[in-house]
Specification:
This protein is mostly beta strands and 352 residues long. It has 3 helices and 26 strands.
């Protein structure tokens, strides 16, 4: 009997060692673990197995304050996330991300800056749009989303821009904080319903405005019209030579087969040297290459340099058309924006 107990104890010790010894696999906060209170060290971060409801999960215990921020530890990326009511570092593949998880207020000022006004001296941002952009139109809803709200303007409601417009809406950009060169960029967005709404997730070349448009380049990841509820526009813009504009793909309109305003969908790009692909809900919709560009433009392929990201809700204008008279407000909701490597390419940079 004593020999049996010793043998059984030896088995438990061996099993315990197998469970607790760090493996080569990356540990992610929130993944299941056993036994309770065991610990491992991965990429310089100590993880402890803790009770979270009915599950036991790894909790790094490495506290952080700014939810959504990315930290680099021992050549690995960690994101500040809320797990079991605490803000801790979670290993991630993202090079840059925003989950919009704060309880309220504007989006993080370390990642986004608001735009103001109508684009003066370009009337209506150069597209005859009807909105003036103000910072108070960009707010977090406390449920994990950024909400950009457009409302019909009241008399003298010009706030910081000092410009009178029919609508007040929101626009934010990473221009002063981060630019992206190649990689995978995605956002999960619910677009508004209603004729005349023009939600957009897009990019401008980081040299803009020092290098004017279209030479700076533009990548439209999402453009939609409230009057055509299932259609998605995804386009690359650049110079054609001689001051003209060139666009690819030739067929830049995709019928998704669903009413986009009914739910969140993921809009993205897969970007590498001399090739750019657009995605919808993770599926590649279209592809363009530098060879195709050379066939329509005498100017260089404009997508081999850094770009910054923009989110906005425009109203009316040359693209979206007239705004429905029954519409008094509209909302564009953004669940998250994620940026990571693709096919070995991708880095966060800032060029000014």
């Amino acid at each position: 009997m004593r020999k049996f107990r010793i043998a059984l104890l030896s088995i438990f010790l061996i099993l315990g060692l197998c469970i607790c010894t760090p493996s080569n696999a990356a540990i992610r906060t929130g993944s299941t673990c056993a036994p309770l209170r065991s610990s491992q060290v991965s990429a310089g971060v100590k993880f402890t197995c803790v009770q979270a409801g009915s599950k036991t999960v790894w909790n790094s215990g490495a506290r952080c304050t700014s939810v959504g921020e990315i930290y680099s530890i021992a050549a690995k990326n960690y994101q500040c996330e809320t797990v079991a009511g605490k803000n801790v570092l979670t290993q991630t593949s993202y090079l840059w991300a925003d989950e919009f998880n704060a309880n309220s207020g504007p989006p993080a000022s370390t990642k986004w800056s608001p735009s103001y006004g109508t684009g003066w001296p370009l009337y209506g941002w150069g597209n005859n749009e009807l909105e003036s952009y103000e910072d108070y139109a960009n707010r977090l809803d406390g449920n994990g989303s950024l909400v950009i709200t457009a409302t019909r303007s009241k008399p003298l409601n010009a706030a910081n821009s000092g410009v009178m417009s029919q609508w007040v809406s929101g626009k934010i950009t990473t221009a002063s904080h981060a630019s992206f060169l190649y990689g995978k960029l995605e956002a999960r967005i619910q677009v508004p319903a209603g004729a005349g709404t023009w939600p957009a997730f897009w990019m401008l070349g980081a040299q803009y405005p020092a290098v004017p448009w279209p030479w700076s380049g533009e990548i439209d990841i999402l453009e939609a019209k409230g009057s055509q509820s299932s259609l998605l526009w995804q386009t690359g813009h650049g110079p054609a030579g001689g001051g003209a504009e060139a666009n690819l793909p030739t067929s830049n309109v995709h019928d998704t087969g669903v009413t986009l305003s009914n739910d969140y969908h993921t809009y993205g790009i897969l970007w590498q040297p001399n090739q750019l692909q657009w995605t919808f809900d993770g599926q590649v919709v279209s592809t363009i290459t530098s060879t195709q560009w050379a066939a329509i433009s005498s100017a260089d392929w404009p997508f081999n340099h850094a770009y910054y990201a923009i989110l906005n809700l425009a109203m009316g204008g040359d693209f979206a058309g007239g705004v429905s008279g029954s519409l008094s407000s509209a909302q564009m909701k953004v669940d998250w924006v994620h940026y990571s490597k693709y096919n070995g390419y991708g880095k966060v940079t800032l060029i000014k």
